[in-house]
Amino acid sequence: MSGRRRDSVAFTAVVTLLVLLGALVMSVVIAFSGAPGSLVLATLLAALPVGPLVGCFMWLDRYEPEPRSLLVAGLAWGAFVATAAALVFQGIGVGGGVTGEQSLAVVAPVTEELTKGLFLVLLLWWRRHELDGILDGIVYAGMVGIGFAFTENILYLAAAYNGTDGLGPGGTEALTSVFVLRCLVSPFAHPLFTAFIGIGVGLAVTSRSRIVRLVAPLAGYALAVLTHALWNGSTLGGIDHFVAVYGTLMLPALVAIIVFALYRRRSERGLMTAALDDAARRGLLPATDIPWLVDLRARRHARTYARQTGGRQAERAMREYQAAAIELAYLHHRYLRGTAPVDFAERGREHVARLGAVRPYISFPGQVVPTR
């Protein structure tokens, strides 16, 4: 078994085991947090922002789509592992004499970002080949943050409805207030915090500097904790303090992350074009294919053309060819930058072999359709 295969198996086994344990813990916690009716209602309300948020991160991920299994693993990690571990750490802190306000403003940001960020560390350790840069880090961090917020929102919504949050008698009015605050006004909070860790991990993957590879994830974690702590602290100072922090910190930080992510997404086309142009000069793929690989609209058009001319089988072949070419582009880009992974040659041969196996059976619009 190759080293990369062993790493993949180890990652899958560890993540699966921890997700199952976390799911067991959180199932018990949720079961004791309210009556079945209130939990169903809380779960439905907590799920409402999940779809739009996932859609946003999937849209960012369109140039080089990450494996769906890893994206689901990120969601599950956030929903079960990170939440369960954070509850344990915070319970230890409270048991050690930490007050509720101290736990919210200090312990929660430190432990929650640590437990969320651990998923990206495991990716960096065992599945580094799936991380091609900053955008990948943001996408995986976003998935973890979405999963964490979903489970946390269930607990907050159920507590508000049942009146067990210590803020009032509960009921529909309390539930509505928490829903508006957490699911409508700030559903992006946890993905935003953890995105800083994703950026740090992405920088570590693409940097030639050993110092940057070490410091970048730590700096990302520090920024995640800082923004999380400022956000949590704003809820302790009254509505005026909350609005001030929301307007002067959270929204600008969110806009900055969005602009940065869009910039990185826009630069993907130039990155892929340069890498594939060089790969074509080395004879790894035909240069005439490149325009159909680096433009998202052209990719869709090529798949549609393949389906119209050769049916579903031809469309699958086109998808396979595009996926292999995209993987080759990002790998070759890292080679040109001098940050190629240690298994660069092995992976490169695999991608080129996939391209060679599929290429005789596909054609792009305007080219003659080959026959078997």
TrEMBL record:
Keyword Transport present in the record's keywords: the answer is: no
Keywords linked to the UniProt accession: Hydrolase, Membrane, Metalloprotease, Protease, Transmembrane, Transmembrane helix
Q: Name one Pfam family in it.
A: PrsW-protease
Q: Name one GO biological process term.
A: proteolysis
Q: Which InterPro entries match?
A: PrsW
Keyword S-adenosyl-L-methionine appears in the UniProt entry? no
Bilayer-crossing residues are: 9-33, 39-60, 72-92, 104-126, 138-159, 179-204, 211-231, 243-263
Gene Ontology MF terms: metallopeptidase activity
Q: What is this protein called?
A: PrsW family intramembrane metalloprotease
